[in-house]
């Protein structure tokens, strides 16, 4: 389903080289639920961006459902993203001038969903994350954790086959964070979603089947979770 | 030192009213170290912005070192902020087009610190948060946790009398987060800094002398910590 081989990401900065990823091999099956952990700067967001077809490796290969991603055109990448992938960004990346509801409807527009169904699905997604009473607020009229939950609702609204989430509970208190990760578990069970999330929180990471650990741009550990 | 009486913050949205703060009384002594906790949307960032003179109450009074803040002019507020307060924003608010070092030097410029001393202090602050090797990166060339640490270094560079931090470890792994909060404890001890930070993490909150809990815009609890 997801196969990375020898993936590197190297930034040239003047005379020096920053190795964000130094050669990652990773195999993730359809329908698996995986957490990615590691220290600040270890390459987690970089890895997730490559998995989500938002960035390309410097070298190495990425095969998604048997298709070589690094060989795709921009149009093909855009189609994969809108059809298969829901992405929650570490810093949310909401559109500032539109409401929570409009932000959540956006991927549904790209997916060609009609007007009434779009509104219904977006409202349902916002309801799932506890924000029905904040639908018409713009991002600067929302708290940090509310913005994060809008970003989550936006990623879920199209019921994507693959959910990628970068620290989805980072701005949330433990009760709200647990509710969100239990929502991910439920979608994973009910619609067989492949879920990959980055987290710093060991308690949140234990809600998965497997934990991949990064350190300095390399996989340092890859272990099953005893009781997800 | 810090005295809030009957502080409210009310937003008018079309026909409805959002009570971000519904009447807060709070007394914080010079040199105290306090954590503010509470669910997402309970008013923590709103409270911190008022304490940091970045926002004004809808009603109620704020007395800082015996001076009525809600009666100050914009110029007086700006001077209080640059002389007394270091603020770490929940979403960092770094300048996108300037490097980490330049971002950290900015408050030192406002405080009238000379060129060479500014550079020395900014480098020392970045070193304290473990980012000496990322000084010349711009924010989009830094990981989420590295950006957060730049925001922290910026707040500390001027050795402010009052440090206000909105979820300063939210984007950090537990080891790096603990290092940061121990740094706050050390400054609190060594220079008698008044430290107030918002956190969702109960482990991080226990590194203080006192925990204030908000719920729905009101103080719901205010208790000493047994072993800070
Ligand atoms: N400009 C605004 N207009 C309307 N409502 C607002 C505005 N800013 C904040 N709010 C509302 O005020 C409430 C408190 O917001 P605040 O940012 O203080 O919460 P918080 O405790 O920091 O939450 P979090 O833990 O999610 O960061 C929220 O319910 C939010 O929706
Ligand atoms: N555009 C860039 N140019 C240069 N270096 C970069 C760039 N983007 C990221 N980096 C570096 O690559 C490394 C990995 O970054 P990444 O964002 O993947 O880390 P992370 O594991 O997500 O960290 P965090 O937990 O702090 O979010 C970091 O050391 C960062 O400084
Ligand atoms: Mg990251
Ligand atoms: Mg907040």
How would you describe this protein?
Helix content of chain A is 35%, strand content 29%. With 228 residues, chain A is α/β, with parallel strands linked by helices. In chain A, the strands form two sheets. A six-stranded mixed sheet of chain A has the order 6-7-8-3-9-10, sandwiched between helices. Chain A has a four-stranded antiparallel sheet with strand order 2-1-4-5, with helices on one face. In chain A, α3 (100-110) crosses α4 (115-128) and α4 crosses α5 (144-156). At the A-B interface, α5 and α6 of A face α5 and α6 of B. The complex binds adenosine-5'-triphosphate (2 copies) and magnesium ion (2 copies). One adenosine-5'-triphosphate (ATP) sits between chains A (11, 13, 18, 20, 38, 40-46, 90) and B (134, 137, 141-146, 171).
Keyword list:
7 helices; alpha/beta; 228 residues; binds magnesium ion; homodimer; 10 strands; four-stranded antiparallel beta sheet; globular; 29% strand; binds adenosine-5'-triphosphate
In short:
Chain A is an alpha/beta fold. Chain A is built from seven helices and ten strands.
Number of helices of chain A: 7
Instruction: Please give the number of β-strands of chain A.
Output: 10
Strand line-up of the largest beta sheet of chain A = 6-7-8-3-9-10
Distance between the termini of chain A: 22 Å
Instruction: Summarize the largest interface: chains and residue counts.
Output: A-B, 31 and 31 residues
- Helix and strand content put the structural class of chain A at alpha/beta
Q: Which word captures the global form of chain A? A: globular
Which percent band covers the strand fraction of chain A? Answer: 25-35%
Biggest β-sheet of chain A, characterized?
A: 6 strands, mixed
* Quaternary: homodimer
Order of helices and strands of chain A: EEEHEEHEHHHEHEHEE
